[in-house]
Amino acid sequence: MTSRRETPARRRAAIAGLGLTELGKVYGPSARQFAAQAVRRAAADAGIGLSDIDGLLVSAGTTPGVDLSLQVDLGLRDLRLFTQMQAFGSTAGAMVQYAAMAVEAGMADTVACVFADAPLQQGKATGAAYGGRRTTPTGWGSLLGSSGFAGPNSFYALAARRHMKTYGTTSEQLGAIAVAQRAWAAKNPLAQLRDPITLADHQASRFIAEPFHLLDCCLVSNGGAAVIVTSAERAASLAQPAVQVLGWGQAHPGNSFRRNDNFGLVSGAAQSGPAAMEMAGVTIEDIDVAEIYDCYTFTALLTLEDYGFCGKGEGGEFVATPGMLGPDGKLAVNTGGGQLSSYYLWGMTPLSEAIIQARGQGGERQVPKHDTVLVSGNGGILDHHSTLVLGAA
Length: 393
Prior knowledge:
CATH superfamily of the largest domain: Thiolase/Chalcone synthase
Distance between the termini: 22 Å
CATH topology of the largest domain: Peroxisomal Thiolase, Chain A, domain 1
CATH class of the largest domain: Alpha Beta
């Protein structure tokens, strides 16, 4: 951290480009094609040519094809930094972190970070996109599977139930998050779901894995997203308002699902959040906008607690407080609708909206004060966490 403070301001990293493909129920392009299109759009957004890119970080979703072959698809030559990364939903934040470190160390000048996925198939149910096992579990994992824990829904439901039992969190409190984020999505032309919902709608939606209703669970989307990371000096001369990368942090708790584990009570946000804010020289009181990974309503609640927006165990009461969340609320959280209502591109969902807000380009949903934006990424079953602190130019 000390060495970064010694980095000249002009050399410190900034995000200069954002590229989003068509998102949602978009059929035809492969994940690999979405990825290439996202990088091209990010470069065009920044006002640079593909030949200016000398670093490429690639992350794949559930579908194949987004890999090191993307270099050839894009016609990139003589890259100085190139790798494929995977920490699930925390990868987008980690990619920006590594790109920023590379830029500040002089390893690369202009790094593209890209994620793409195409799990939806026309004529097949949305729920089938993440259904089924890809490998047969052994050992401890086989015991969990024989007990009915066959996928993310059941494991996250277990985590939420433990939080409920320990702290008294309720389904209605989780529903307050879903309702608030749908209100934000109504103002976002990119959002898949824009029709307003009520708490009664949330409670009436079918159960997916108790205590989760359908409206507690994220969308499934096809598409791709990419960002361009370069130096602050160079970003200042490009086409878009530069978004400063002020701080970052990662945490990987290593949950074992055994006795005395704090699974469901504390996430990696409790470590990565303070680390990122300390690097950025800010506190939780300085955060203007929070873009929180929300694969489930519970994930957002737990992360808000662990970042320190409220006390541990107080998340339910906090999010359900009238006037706290939503477009007119005290705290600007998931201003595009998040993964619950906007689109699901893993960690690129909160990151893309954070960039839009920091630039002041949110249109009807733009938050007036957007100097400091906190971004979270969550991967696996609360296994991995990344945090970024971004700043407006």
